[in-house]
Design brief:
572 residues, BirA Bifunctional Protein, domain 2, YbaK protein, nine-stranded mixed β-sheet, 14 helices, 28% strand, binds adenosine-5'-triphosphate, binds magnesium ion
Length: 572
Amino acid sequence: MRLSRLLITTLREDPADAEIPSHKLLLRGGYIVKTASGLYTYSPLLWRTLKKIIEIVREEIDREGGQELLMPILHPKDLWVRSGRWDRYVADGILFTLQDQKGADFCLGPTHEEVITDFANTLITSYKDLPVNLYQIQDKFRDEIRPRFGLMRGREFIMMDAYSFDADEAGLDESYKAMDRAYRRVFERCGLAFRSVQADAGAIGGSGSEEFMVIADAGEDAILYCEESGYAANVEKAGSIAPEAPPCGTPQAMEKHATPDVRTVEQLIAFFDLPAGAMAKTVLFEVTWAEEQGVVAVLMRGDLEINEVKLTNALDCLGLALASDETIQRVTGAEVGFAGPLGLPDDVRLLADVTLKERTNLLTGCNETGFHCLNVNLGRDTRAPEFHDLRLARAGELAPDRAGPLKEARGIEVGHIFKLGTKYSSTMGANFMADNGKPAPFVMGCYGIGVSRTAQSAVEQNHDDKGIIWPAAIAPFACSVVVVDVKKPEQLELGTQIWETLRAAGIDACLDDRPGRPGPKFKDFELLGFPYGIYVGRGAAERQVEFVVRQGMTKADLSVDEAVAKVKAALG
Ligand code: ATP
Ligand code: MG
């Protein structure tokens, strides 16, 4: 491609509304243009990168036996009602819904479990047809509450979504492992530093779920990992060995103490001169289930934090939020800061973290303004709580396998693999004829790769203060032959020759034959981020050029043959 014929517009200044480096750089490089909130037009240059990612995804999933198909983007409501997801997705506000001219309801697909399950039910009839893994690469639509960071969280974005169908769990295990292999190769080939981490499988449970995280400070997810054992999990899911708690002794008689204006854990431990681990804090949540709403009290050791995702799973609820001050006052009859497990109204469920199971003589609130209690013993002085693992794992704590301490990193979720089991097939009545002659529901897995998010993640991970440094496999062009001054015929001629030589060697090279001063062309090379460059300037008459490596912007004066050999060696 001659860059003189390609639409390239670069900006020198950082755009005002972009926060993270990759978003700024994609805008500055003219790679994306915002069409509306969460909606972007990919420029011809970025589309080249996206097509390369798509091709890598396609090759690797095909290699594991995946079959590509294409489903409609527009989904009839009826399918989503059959899976039971319509109301929930509408309530969450994530679904783009619309009506046809007859008034029938539709949505724009945020994911395709319903459509594929219905498809499989129609075409896959016997265990002899299994296993099958079907995938597509297509735009998805989600009305995200906070679309942000450019392509990272769009409202329309490109996803590869795959769905596996097996006769039994053992088959699902194999399909899942195959996708795990494919994903690793995809992200390796894309040149990304990533980690696969255990992920929360939600209320569905399910026997396996892993997220593929590109490690980057701008990542929205926190992950915890152990270098010694390789254990790695999304913080939402992560476990750890709880830090030691202070000794607590045999149960003593409960004592009520006046604690005027002493409300927080810090204030309480100072007031009573006790370690935080000797206390149980009581946190109230307002919880929404499909059919009802309610308030739940959660007890957590004073030195530990609550993991709201684990709490959501334990309650099997649709959502929860910290209770408002009014709710706390209404439920406890006391001001904020004095809530406790004693004498809570009957309709307030009492949950406690498992670390409190063996604890005696706790310091807690007692639902009376200005008072706290010492020597509270759960089940004796309070209702027996429901014990669950509700604790947030933290960096520094020992990994669950005790191999070493947990470390923290930020990650961008670029892919997700998930064992669904029979959740959709049984609710939607999608069956095949099993080898015993009886109908059985498909055992399913689902898998997603955020293609557009992956492109931006590559930039987030590979840039410097001058611009983007694309990994070669997904760069819009792997090498740019920059003609420093196109008005000089010998430069243009030699540049064109080199470009043709590279292309003949199968290298995706472009020719920067744009008119104009050299300075801005060099700046563009740095900003646009093609991994290799050959600058053809004053030395053209002697067939001398400059070979440039974008990573580090190292430059070497070489003969044409040497420079071409370098590029071939680097990209071969
Ligand atoms: P997130 O937790 O980031 O909202 P998700 O877990 O809801 O994502 P999945 O349903 O697992 O997303 O979708 C599969 C993949 O699609 C994700 O791993 C991610 O790479 C990508 N993806 C999801 N939502 C978006 C979005 N709004 N914009 C761009 N890519 C997205
Ligand atoms: Mg996900």
